[in-house]
């Protein structure tokens, strides 16, 4: 497959043009294009330009409002809510971000509960900037019913990712972002597209039988949680935090059947922010590096988030590697 | 094995006498006895009277201070710290509990960061009462190096449990409490005592090879995290929250070799409390029940915490079933 290299600002501009062409406001386009281009730049292919079909199909079908104006509510001194008004979650976060930081600085901890929102990207792009500013951040988002709870027979949970970011003294922040299903849905889609099988235990077919065929999982089947009953409990917690606490939908509650092609779940997102400067004892960033060093001494070679920082350096130096077919497809999407 | 039944208050009084006999203050004895008796009552055998040997050995060797007076620090409007002063974590929580609730009511969210503390019990007894008062609670505690990080060769993490509790409208709260190692250490000890094998993937021996022999895990071997790299990332987060944020030790940092028999890890505990009354949309408890109902419709028969509530009902009706040998042993411990 022929590969082309594109500079980060050029990819952002291209994606921005696509979003605008599909009816978003300029502001929403700028936020989503930056987010999506960061995923592609950092090698997070399943949330990079691969997602543009989902974004544009959802916009084209009218399922998500690309011009929604989110509304910020202050529920308490440390408790912010945003009604995304059927728009994307990232502009809702952008609206609440500065106030959330201010409240976290004042109180030591604060949360932002986003509802009526569509989140089709990874969570780490939301959290990494907080860690770079000295905050510990935790976020959960639910998605659409595609994961069978442990002990159950049909899908209730979404892929329900949880992400965590924490600052270090001098290095890159610690950032992990993982689906609490056995796999991320984007990776199942990629496996289906590329004709690969899934690992054992990843999912079930439409009859509830174990399968490693990505198409069987996507067509009437379902994923299983990671880690058995423990992963299932965490996924349940993520539904409660992302939906019951925010006021958003559970993964099984919204009905997008009237919008064929819609790919953006209409749920909620929770972000909890902690001011690492309030830590007891030695500075948090110093202590975080002590843990990283000990893990390295124990033989750990790969740390959460590290592969993204490595990919970012490559992309910054050489440009972002994109298949020529993908680039042509994006340019066609952007054209009038 | 002959079984005797003992009423909850009688078990509390017996355990209290033991703690006092091993040098704790009356207040610490009352808190720990209640905690331990609740575990036994609720069928959480690995944290019930089985743990009394660890408590009394740790006290006898002078490793933990049963008369420590914890010190409360207000770091910010929503950020409390407690220095447990080398005492147990539960009295430190008891000291901060009312202020934590007050701060959570005022701010919507608050945290309590306990350091220099020993936690040998389960986490759910700490959290369940918060959920009964309408709060969502999350807690983490690290322990002692006995779990190999994913991709590593030697133990760095503890069993590092995470617990979560949330209120429902009318029923029992949702409460889960799970080790992020493949098993809880208490369960490995019980398997060793009863001559049972561990499930595949539970741990490694002293040469780093997979084993299902609990003795091999306990004698120079180590546990593995649950759920592969994902569980390992969560365990890493728990070290950062319970140690780096609180100011306590990492699981690999304290040295109890001068106190043979010491069984109580000297680390830290984090508790995050959220006021469910600030939730967006419908009341949180109503929404939590909607999720539970949907999971039940999907065929889930057993919910986190449910087995404990069932055991509690039995114990309240019939008394707590204890082996006669165990009861004799406890009575001997309590005697002068």
UniProtKB/TrEMBL annotation, chains A, B:
Keyword Oxidoreductase in annotation: yes
A molecular function (GO) term: oxidoreductase activity
Gene expressing this chain: dpkA
UniProt xrefs under Gene3D superfamilies: 1.10.1530.10, Hypothetical oxidoreductase yiak, domain 2 (3.30.1370.60)
PANTHER family recorded: MALATE DEHYDROGENASE (PTHR11091:SF0), OXIDOREDUCTASE-RELATED (PTHR11091)
Organism: Symbiodinium necroappetens
Highest taxon of source: Eukaryota
Keyword Oxidoreductase: yes
Keywords recorded for this protein, A-Z: Oxidoreductase
Record protein name field: DpkA protein
Family: Belongs to the LDH2/MDH2 oxidoreductase family.
């Amino acid at each position: 497959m022929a590969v082309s290299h594109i500079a980060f600002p050029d990819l952002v501009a291209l994606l921005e043009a696509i979003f605008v062409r599909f009816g978003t406001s300029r502001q929403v386009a700028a936020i989503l294009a930056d987010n999506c281009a960061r995923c592609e730049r950092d090698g997070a292919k399943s949330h990079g330009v691969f997602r543009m079909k989902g974004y544009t199909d959802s916009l084209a079908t009218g399922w998500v409002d690309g011009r929604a104006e989110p509304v910020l509510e202050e529920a308490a001194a440390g408790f912010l809510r945003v009604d995304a008004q059927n728009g994307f979650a990232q502009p809702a976060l952008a609206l609440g971000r500065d106030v959330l930081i201010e409240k976290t600085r004042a109180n030591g901890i604060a949360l932002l509960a986003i509802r009526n929102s569509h989140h089709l990207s990874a969570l780490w792009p939301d959290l990494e900037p907080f860690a770079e500013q000295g905050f510990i951040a935790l976020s959960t988002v639910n998605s659409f019913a595609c994961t069978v709870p442990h002990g159950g027979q049909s899908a209730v949970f979404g892929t329900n990712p949880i992400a965590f970011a924490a600052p270090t003294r001098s290095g890159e922040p610690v950032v992990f972002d993982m689906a609490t299903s056995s796999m991320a849905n984007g990776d199942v889609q990629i496996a289906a597209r590329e004709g690969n099988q899934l690992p054992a235990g990843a999912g079930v077919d439409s009859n509830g039988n174990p399968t490693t065929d990505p198409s069987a999982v996507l067509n009437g089947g379902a994923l299983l949680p990671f880690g058995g009953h423990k992963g299932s409990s965490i996924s349940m917690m993520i539904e409660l935090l992302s939906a019951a606490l925010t006021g958003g939908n559970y993964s099984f509650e919204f009905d997008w059947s009237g919008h064929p092609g819609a790919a953006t779940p209409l749920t909620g997102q929770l972000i909890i922010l902690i001011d690492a400067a309030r830590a007891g004892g030695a500075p948090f960033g110093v202590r975080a590096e002590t843990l990283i060093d000990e893990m390295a001494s124990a033989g750990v070679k790969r740390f959460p988030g590290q592969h993204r920082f490595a990919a970012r350096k490559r992309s910054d130096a050489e440009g972002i590697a994109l298949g020529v077919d993908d680039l042509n497809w994006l340019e066609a999407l952007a054209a009038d």
